Here is the input.
Amino acid sequence: MLWIPGVDEIPLSILDADEDGMIAAAVKKIGPATRALHDMKAGEPIGIRGPFGNWFTLKKGKLLMVGGGTGIAPLLFLAKKLNAEQARPTLVLGAKSKEELLFLDELGQLCSSGNFVATTEDGSYGMKCLVTEPLEKQMSRQRFDMVYACGPEQMLKRVFDLAEKHRTCM
Here is the structure.
């Protein structure tokens, strides 16, 4: 949880972290707290509580990452960790528009060659559809040992249902 003094506290996922304890987060300006955060100057105080929520368990084998919207951000951190373990996952990303498809180049470099699918709801990049549409095709073609997903709740529910249908671990 990230606290912006005098404004609000908001949940954020870690985008990156280094060995010195410095962390990075991607923050979309959508409400009063994120607007205030974007308007802050370097060195102004913020508060951090946590960690809360869930984390990703590193696995080996055939791996699939599914990201939607701002849920793409923590997948970059995960992809870097998986690469350190010599794992190159298949990646399926979706967002409303190309501008909201975060970290495309970096994620493309960290994932399996040729196993990268991007979708946008408006058709401005990749396939024009929800991220779960090509995901079903991907899961019907091959079995994955682990599926990592981060994004909107409706997307996560659909990813879970597809994983169960295709008997994929999640």
